[in-house]
Specification:
With about 150 residues, this protein is α+β, with helices and mostly antiparallel strands. The chain has a single domain, classed as Rossmann fold (3-Layer(aba) Sandwich), CATH 3.40.50.1820. The protein contains 7 helices and 5 strands, in the order H-H-E-E-H-H-E-E-H-E-H-H. The strands form 2 sheets. Strands 1-2-3 form a 3-stranded antiparallel beta sheet. The longest helix is centred in the last third of the chain and has 14 residues. It is globular, with a radius of gyration of 17 Å. The relative contact order is 0.17.
Length: about 150
């Protein structure tokens, strides 16, 4: 069997045609303990609602934008050496209005993993805007898996 090719977040994100994340990211340089410079990324607060949580009230998205935690830019170039979905059952929620990852990328990942999948009309913030659907998916996975 051939060794699977490693694929990082950046390579996956490049596959999406409906993600708006790349143009909404704001870089911030910081000092690493060794004196080198690192970059962390956050979503521009002015674009946060459109990109991350369009189905939530404006006041709530303003708060989420202010509270967001940045991600290290290195995460976009890092690659995984193993993927759990290759060996265990997988569940996936496709967010049809997701402008962070993009529904097309979510479908690709779910299909590649042979995931048990549901689709709903929501943004990336499905756990906030549609908690019952997210909880139902998690409970379905828990009931179907006996580890």
């Amino acid at each position: 069997m051939a060794t699977p090719r490693a694929c990082g977040i950046g390579a996956l994100a490049a596959r999406s045609t409906d993600s708006q994340l790349a143009s909404a990211l704001r870089p911030l340089s910081y000092a690493e303990p060794d004196g080198s410079r690192g970059i962390e990324l956050s979503i521009d607060p002015a674009q946060f609602r459109t990109v991350f949580a369009a189905d939530l009230p404006t006041a709530q998205t303003r708060l989420l934008a202010a509270e967001q935690r940045p991600v290290d830019a290195a995460a976009f170039s890092a690659t995984a050496t193993a993927a759990a979905w290759r060996t265990i059952p997988t569940w996936s929620l496709i967010a049809r209005q997701d402008r962070t990852l993009g529904a097309d990328l979510e479908r690709f990942e779910a299909q590649r993993a042979s995931a048990h999948t549901i689709e709903i009309n929501n943004s990336h913030a499905a756990m906030i805007s549609h908690p019952a659907a997210v909880t139902g998916l998690i409970l379905s996975a828990a009931r179907s898996t006996h580890y």
